Automatic annotation (TrEMBL):
The keyword DNA repair does not apply. Residues 49-68 are annotated as: Disordered. GO terms for molecular function: dioxygenase activity; metal ion binding. InterPro entries: DIOX_N, IPNS-like_FE2OG_OXY, IPNS-like_sf, Oxoglu/Fe-dep_dioxygenase_dom. It comes from the Eukaryota. This is Fe2OG dioxygenase domain-containing protein. Its cofactor is Fe cation. Belongs to the iron/ascorbate-dependent oxidoreductase family. Residues 49-59 have a biased composition (Polar residues). Keywords: Iron, Metal-binding, Oxidoreductase. Residues 209-312 form the Fe2OG dioxygenase domain.
Length: 363
């Protein structure tokens, strides 16, 4: 689907081009503001790794499992979550309890940050991921085969909330309020996920799956050549669970049964997906699916992804392996134990290359 129209010239110095772009600290937004008609070579993507996977534009969100968060429907909800996590690794939840006004305010806040004057944003631009808050273009900018058409502001929101003075004024207060609501939702979801796995309802919360939250505010500007690049290339998430808020532009696709399925926006729903760490501790019971975001002529597309996992020490030193209640002589562990720190370090070093980081930890 995504192809290069012509090879890079023999005198093209990719490393120099990457550094020159990064040094602008203006991100993809800066290219669009400059009025470019063609995307720079560093953004050109070759054909997706899984050539047999076919895009199916006719598929809609009606095929992505939907879950009603109404507690009065508990038994049915657990069945729905169990089925979705084993077959898709994705579902959409309605009646999630987060006010629509807060969802809208969060989207406006992220958009507002990315549309600040470049000189203001430069103060946040960094690739030092030991910092609480970072803003840059692609966390794997220097590792990936091709740069994705996306800028991101990210922040560690839990278990130790950031100093409000460290957050951007345009969206900081809303980031705190929204993250608090997401963590409450996540705790409820982990109860359902525990029961779906046949565990004690509090199991996943008790082992710390819901104690950490990484906030990612993504901004995908309109692209002059959307068929030549990607918003986010194929990947799975490094989380236990991801809670995604997306706007109405669309572009998110999930891989299922060897097809790319469109996840059409639903104003009343949040998209939930299983992350790599949950697939690891569930011993392959739940599926951390590959997904991607397509670029479009229109934009900007804005989304907010909250990763439920630890990011900074000492919390990220906690070691996880397949849950002992889920393994047996007939069903032995398929992954080795790993600290979150080790897993995330490998994930960041590998970048979004279409290959699951879990393969590195498989026995």
């Amino acid at each position: 689907m995504v192809t290069k129209t012509e090879p890079e010239s023999s005198d093209f110095d990719r490393d120099t081009a990457l550094k020159a772009f990064d040094d602008t600290k203006a991100g993809v937004k800066g290219l669009v503001d400059a009025g470019i008609a063609k995307i720079p070579p560093i953004f050109l993507h070759s054909r997706p790794n899984a050539a047999s996977v076919q895009s199916t534009p006719g598929h809609t969100e009606s095929e992505l499992p939907g879950v009603d968060g109404d507690p009065n429907l508990r038994r049915r909800v657990i069945w729905q979550v169990n089925d979705a996590c084993r077959r898709w690794g994705f579902f959409q939840v309605i009646n999630h309890g987060i006010p629509t006004t807060l969802l809208n305010k969060m989207m406006e806040g992220v958009k507002g940050f990315h549309e600040l004057e470049t000189e203001v944003k430069k103060g946040f631009y960094t690739r030092d991921y030991s910092k609480t808050l970072t803003y840059n273009c692609n966390f794997d900018f220097y590792q990936s085969p091709a740069v994705n058409w996306r800028d991101t502001v990210s922040c560690v929101m839990a278990p130790r909330p950031p100093n409000p003075k460290e957050l951007p004024q345009v969206c900081g207060e809303t980031m705190v309020d929204y993250s608090t609501q997401v963590m409450l939702l996540a705790r409820r979801l982990f109860v359902l996920l525990s029961e779906a796995l046949g565990l004690n309802p509090s199991y996943l919360n008790d082992i710390g799956c819901s104690e950490g939250l990484m906030f990612f505010g993504h901004y995908y500007p309109a692209c002059p050549e959307p068929d030549l690049t990607m918003g986010i290339s194929s990947h799975s998430d490094s989380s236990f669970l991801t809670v995604l808020l997306q706007d109405q532009i669309g572009g998110l696709q999930v891989q299922c049964d060897n097809h790319w399925v469109d996840v059409e926006p639903n104003t009343s729903a949040l998209v939930i997906n299983v992350g790599d760490l949950l697939q690891l501790i569930s011993n392959d019971e739940f599926k951390s699916s590959q997904h991607r975001v397509l670029t479009k002529f229109i934009g900007p597309r804005v989304s907010v992804a909250c990763f439920l996992r630890q990011q900074l020490p000492p919390e990220n030193s906690r070691v996880y392996g397949p849950v002992k209640e889920l393994v047996s002589e007939e069903n032995p562990p398929v992954f080795r134990k790993t600290a979150v720190k080790e897993f995330v370090k490998y994930y960041y070093a590998k970048g979004l290359n279409g290959i699951s980081a879990l393969e590195h930890f498989r026995l």
